[in-house]
Amino acid sequence: MKRVKPATAWARAIGRSLESITRSNLRAGARAARFGLDTQRERSKPPPGEGDWIPGIAMSAAGARRYRLYRPPAMQSGERLPLMVMLHGCGQDAKGFAQSTRMNRVAARERFLVLYPEQDRLANAQGCWNWFDARGGRAAAEAQLIMKAIEQVCLLYAVDRARIAVAGLSAGASMAALLVTRHPDRFRALVMHSGVPPGSADSATTALAAMRGRRVAAALPTTTAAASWPPLLVIHGGRDRTVAPGNAHAAVRVWAEAAGAAAEPARSMKRGKRHPMQVTQFRAAGSAVATLVEVPELAHAWSGGAARHPYGDALGPDASRMAWSFASMQFR
User: Fold this and answer.
1) 216 vs 196, 200, 201, 206, 321, CA distance in Å?
2) Residue 296 lies in a domain
3) Do residues 191 and 235 touch, judged by C-beta distance below 8 A?
4) What is the pLDDT of residues 228-272, one digit of tens each?
5) Of 51, 176, 162, whose CA–CA distance to 111 is shortest?
6) Rounded to an integer, what distance in angstroms lies between the CA atom of residue 279 and that of residue 292?
7) Directed axis angle between helix 319-331 and helix 103-110, to 10°?
8) CATH number for the domain including 275?
9) Which of 22, 87, 173, 278 sits a CA distance of 20 to 30 A from 131?
10) Closest by Cα among 246, 291, 245, 285 to 269
11) In sequence order, what are the beta bridge partners of 166?
């Protein structure tokens, strides 16, 4: 029998190990590639329901952001529709937010367009809008990108520029408020769901303190607020452990003080088997400047959202219908 030298046997063993590792890595890579393709295909599929799910991208000197536009079915020639801008929260994307809020169903029934800007994970690993980063400039840059998306949609599709509203959840709510404070002439209504009011933070550290209710929002300039800021609807859960409910009171207080509005007595309401809510309106000169909807049994989730999706509570009052009803009143 031929004797194999130890060095040769060791080299062959190393070679076999390398071949095995290579084959294993190739199989893992193929699986990862298939998973990536499957994920991309799933993300590109439109949410269930009638209507068009149109992809787009907005670009500026600050970078680029993807968006999706929902267009209801059977649009007529020459028809111009209102636009609802929907800003998702952390851990969400455009499609997930559309499915969770079911806003497209409302849009199909009531006939309006819905724009879903999407945060880039390279800009924020958790998918949060950087509403708080005033010092670093990311807040202003992202606000500019979202405004670019709105302008692009207005140019390409049949949007009624006089009827645009913006709504958001959590970080999306805070970014929505930032948009309105910077561009009050572009929006007729603002809906903040479980968010932090403007003027509460300027960095990641102060944002965390504000979310926990440990910072007071700065007052808005009273010289312009009463005349030009659009009405505000705030929806917040009493069991929210992510964004302290005190932020809801701070938001309506900032709006009310800027316009010299006074609070009316709170009204308790309950619809069917959904969670009860308390509604407080703040009026100035007979007009509602801000409306606060408190849902004591709601946590950090879109009220009335799809239960099978993250950050949705199907037992809460329907926030999507409330948001559209509030916006449509301002459009009239």
Assistant:
1) 10, 6, 9, 11, 30
2) yes
3) yes
4) 889 999 999 999 999 999 999 999 999 998 888 999 999 999 988
5) 51
6) 6
7) 40
8) 3.40.50.1820
9) 278
10) 291
11) 85, 190
Q: Which residue has the tokens 């312009």?
A: 224
Tell which residue, 111, 110, 73, 104, has the closest CA to residue 86.
Answer: 104
Indicate whether 22 belongs to any domain. Answer: no
Q: How many domains does the chain have?
A: 1
- The pLDDT score that the predictor gives to residue 45 is 83
pLDDT at 10 over 80: no
Q: For the residues of 74-135, what is the DSSP string, one character each?
A: SPPTT--EEEEEEE--TT--HHHHHHHH-HHHHHHHHT-EEEEE---TTT-TT----TT-TT
pLDDT(6) > 50: no
Residue 51 falls within a domain, yes or no?
no
Per-residue model confidence (pLDDT) at position 78: 84
Tokens 């309106």 correspond to what residue?
A: 281
Residue 143 domain-assigned?
A: yes
At residue 320, φ and ψ (nearest 5 deg) are -65, -45
* Residue-number span of the structural domain to which 234 is assigned: 63-72+80-331
- Give per-residue pLDDT as tens, 186-226: 999 999 999 999 888 888 999 999 899 887 655 555 445 54
pTM: 0.85
H and E: helices and strands count for the chain: 9, 13
